[in-house]
Design brief:
With 399 residues, the protein is of the alpha/beta class. It has 14 helices and 22 strands. The strands form 6 sheets. It has an 8-stranded mixed β-sheet, with helices on both faces. A 6-stranded parallel β-sheet has the order 3-2-1-4-5-6, with helices on both faces. A two-stranded antiparallel sheet has the order 7-8. The structure holds cytidine-5'-triphosphate (CTP).
């Protein structure tokens, strides 16, 4: 997330989902954003303006003509000048209809006649209201005007109907805000990112694998996409939810991952290999479950897999190649060897034994080394922040 000091006007109209709006506000404030809240009169019936006054450190705007002399006379214009983005969450069918038709009968809708920044509309309503042709048409009108209209979830709704119309969760909404406001400095670039472990079948029941969670690769994919890149994510089996909007290619074995990387490599500008592919596979894969019988010992013969990154390193033309090195000792020495052996532009070296770093954590502590053996020793940071540091380095190379 990169919302520090971003100026966000949060418009709230009167629906039951307004109970989630303080959650949006709280997440935005935690990210360092500045927030001003505009409420319709109906919204103030659902949540108290005092909640937002306290959370935002700003006045809450609701009446068109406030009695408070410290507020500007033409607030609806002042707010639109101030905003980097306007987000209406929840946007009820009524407010959507008014905005679509240029009606300005309260502060929020008046502001929506004067907006000049990007706008995100977050609908929340009963399924039948959402599917009514009038609402559908109004939402289309807003989309055609360049506003980003988000979808809704299907669930049991407050009115006891089950269906579409539930407002997205605060985390999803804030993620969309972050995406819209992000500088698109990787636009026009094709990224191929690998993530997670691979698994090598021993028999139909068992397999060999490793502890990779895929978190680092998924963060790289998400952040690259937010920065405008076109991303293909080649992922081994993980428990992670792939970000919307990217091309997810799911694979099992190292050979599958190799095939997928090879297929797209020529059209790729940047290959980032955050995956931990299994280096070996069982020499023979049993077609039936192996029985334990009464053996004292069981010997499993292994054959080496292809080194995907090394092969692409030999093949590369002007692609930027970023590798990872998971080391448990002599990390710099081993990492330096890998950068040369695999013909990489950058290598991200992590000591998997370090505290709060490595496979399953949300943070990482790494060294980034470039072709000239320049070492960047980074502090412990979240994998999201690290993804952006790595992407900044890639961007410098692309330039
Ligand atoms: N890698 C790869 N294909 C493999 C093994 C690794 O492309 N068969 C890539 C990884 O995705 C990573 C880099 O090579 O970007 C280094 O992986 P790592 O497991 O640290 O090193 P290895 O080359 O496997 O060497 P070793 O296991 O001896 O440390």
């Amino acid at each position: 997330m990169d919302l520090k000091d971003k100026k966000i006007v949060l418009g709230i109209s009167g629906g039951i989902s307004a109970y989630k709006s303080p959650g949006i506000c709280s997440l935005l404030r935690k990210q360092g954003a500045k927030v001003k809240v505009v409420m319709t009169q109906a919204a103030t019936e659902f949540v108290s303006p005092l909640t937002f006054r306290t959370m935002t450190d700003n006045l809450v705007y609701s009446e068109m003509f406030e009695k408070n002399p410290s507020q500007a006379l033409v607030e609806h214009i002042e707010l639109t000048k101030w905003a980097d983005i306007i987000v209406i969450a929840p946007a009820t069918a009524n407010t959507i209809a008014k905005i679509a038709n240029g009606i300005a009968d309260n502060l929020l809708t008046s502001m929506m006649l004067a907006y000049r920044s990007p706008v995100i509309i977050v609908p929340a309503m009963n399924t039948y209201m959402l599917n009514n042709p009038a609402t559908r048409q109004n939402l289309k009108t807003l989309r055609d005007r360049g506003m980003l209209v988000l979808g809704t979830h299907t669930d049991l709704l407050a009115c006891k109907d089950v269906g579409d119309g539930k407002m997205l969760e605060p985390e999803e909404i804030v993620d969309e805000i972050d995406t819209v406001l992000r500088k698109k400095d990787l636009a026009g670039k094709n990224f191929l990112i690998t993530a997670g472990p691979t698994i090598e079948a021993i028999d139909p029941v068992r397999y060999l694998s490793n502890h990779s969670s895929g978190k680092m690769g998924y963060e790289l994919a998400r952040e690259a996409m937010k920065r405008g890149a076109k991303v293909k994510l080649i992922s081994g089996p993980t428990n992670l939810q792939a970000p919307k909007g990217l091309d997810l290619i799911q694979v099992q074995s190292t050979e599958d991952m190799y095939q997928a990387v090879e297929k797209y490599f020529d059209q790729t500008h940047v290959l980032i290999k955050a995956a931990a592919p299994a280096d070996f596979r069982p020499a023979k894969q049993a077609m039936e479950k192996i029985k334990k019988k009464d053996q004292d010992q069981m010997v499993l013969e292994l054959s080496p897999n292809k080194d995907i990154l090394k092969t692409m390193g030999q093949r590369k033309k002007d692609q930027v190649l970023v590798g990872f090195a998971a080391e448990s000792e002599n990390e710099l020495e081993n990492g330096l060897e890998k950068i040369t052996k695999k013909n990489l532009d950058l290598i991200v070296i992590n000591n998997i034994k370090a505290k709060d770093a490595g496979f399953k954590t949300d943070t990482n502590k790494v060294l980034i080394v470039d072709k000239d053996k320049q070492v960047q020793d980074l502090d412990l940071m979240t994998k999201t922040d690290l993804a952006n540091v790595i992407l900044d380095r890639v961007l410098q190379i692309l330039k």
